Amino acid sequence: MPRAAVLGSPIAHSLSPALHNGGYAALQLEDWEYTKFDVTDLPAFLETVGEEYLGFSVTMPLKFDALTYADIVSERAELIGSANTLVRTDDGWRADNTDTEGVLGALAELLGATQPTTALLIGAGGTARPVLWGLAKRGVTDVTVLNRSDRLAELRPLADALGLTLRAITFTENLVGVARSVDLIVSTVPSAALDSHLTQLAKAPVFDVIYDPWPTPLTVYAAADGFATVGGHIMLAHQAFSQFEQFTGHTAPRTEMLAALNAALA
């Protein structure tokens, strides 16, 4: 029986099984099963796991380990510096980063055919990296990074490779002016981090990577002012579509997988 699973710690909250198993059911892949494992030592786990496991979704704290352990690394995973996907191949484990596909899917829902050139990115942690990749692919050239400390040095090599111009600001600056000047806002930080800045920031379309609980306060404020919003559940779904196809070789049944995710979130 072919199997796949999500790996990380903690992992009990993961909605990946709902997405992937929903896809298997839709395509009547009755021999496939997707599970989850609480894992902190990725190499030790992979060295003992059975050959029936053909692919793994990888979440924190294992995304960097997945990249270094893999025998083959996709160009985008190498560029971003982390991997959320491992696929068993004849030549060993192949690492990929499908968070990039998740970002593109969320941006497509948020923006439609609009071609953005400027963005405000809130947060400079690990999720910021695939977000920068997705923004560049959508045509953004200038990104303002709002963070409590200046971490541009960590993001600069990626930004340079993507052709992005970055500038850093902190929460002490004129956030209203910045938010009004950009084509979209992407938040990668916990909702509580923005509690005292919501009215200042909700001045443009918002993609918030948080999805539980949904809607987030930032998206509520933005929607109240008439701006489009999209949540992290759309990113989660789209990154899973790509994983599903890499694991099974079948086109992901997107409508059914998204319905399974929404049911799990309800």
From TrEMBL:
<dbReference type="InterPro" id="IPR022893">
    <property type="entry name" value="Shikimate_DH_fam"/>
</dbReference>
<feature type="domain" description="SDH C-terminal">
    <location>
        <begin position="235"/>
        <end position="261"/>
    </location>
</feature>
<dbReference type="GO" id="GO:0050661">
    <property type="term" value="F:NADP binding"/>
</dbReference>
<keyword id="KW-0057">Aromatic amino acid biosynthesis</keyword>
<dbReference type="InterPro" id="IPR013708">
    <property type="entry name" value="Shikimate_DH-bd_N"/>
</dbReference>
<dbReference type="GO" id="GO:0009423">
    <property type="term" value="P:chorismate biosynthetic process"/>
</dbReference>
<dbReference type="InterPro" id="IPR046346">
    <property type="entry name" value="Aminoacid_DH-like_N_sf"/>
</dbReference>
<dbReference type="InterPro" id="IPR036291">
    <property type="entry name" value="NAD(P)-bd_dom_sf"/>
</dbReference>
<comment type="pathway">
    <text>Metabolic intermediate biosynthesis; chorismate biosynthesis; chorismate from D-erythrose 4-phosphate and phosphoenolpyruvate: step 4/7.</text>
</comment>
<dbReference type="GO" id="GO:0005829">
    <property type="term" value="C:cytosol"/>
</dbReference>
<dbReference type="Pfam" id="PF08501">
    <property type="entry name" value="Shikimate_dh_N"/>
</dbReference>
<dbReference type="Pfam" id="PF01488">
    <property type="entry name" value="Shikimate_DH"/>
</dbReference>
<feature type="domain" description="Quinate/shikimate 5-dehydrogenase/glutamyl-tRNA reductase">
    <location>
        <begin position="113"/>
        <end position="191"/>
    </location>
</feature>
<keyword id="KW-0560">Oxidoreductase</keyword>
<dbReference type="Pfam" id="PF18317">
    <property type="entry name" value="SDH_C"/>
</dbReference>
<keyword id="KW-0028">Amino-acid biosynthesis</keyword>
<dbReference type="InterPro" id="IPR006151">
    <property type="entry name" value="Shikm_DH/Glu-tRNA_Rdtase"/>
</dbReference>
<dbReference type="InterPro" id="IPR010110">
    <property type="entry name" value="Shikimate_DH_AroM-type"/>
</dbReference>
<dbReference type="GO" id="GO:0009073">
    <property type="term" value="P:aromatic amino acid family biosynthetic process"/>
</dbReference>
<dbReference type="GO" id="GO:0004764">
    <property type="term" value="F:shikimate 3-dehydrogenase (NADP+) activity"/>
</dbReference>
<dbReference type="InterPro" id="IPR041121">
    <property type="entry name" value="SDH_C"/>
</dbReference>
<protein>
    <recommendedName>
        <fullName>shikimate dehydrogenase (NADP(+))</fullName>
        <ecNumber>1.1.1.25</ecNumber>
    </recommendedName>
</protein>
<dbReference type="GO" id="GO:0019632">
    <property type="term" value="P:shikimate metabolic process"/>
</dbReference>
<feature type="domain" description="Shikimate dehydrogenase substrate binding N-terminal">
    <location>
        <begin position="6"/>
        <end position="86"/>
    </location>
</feature>
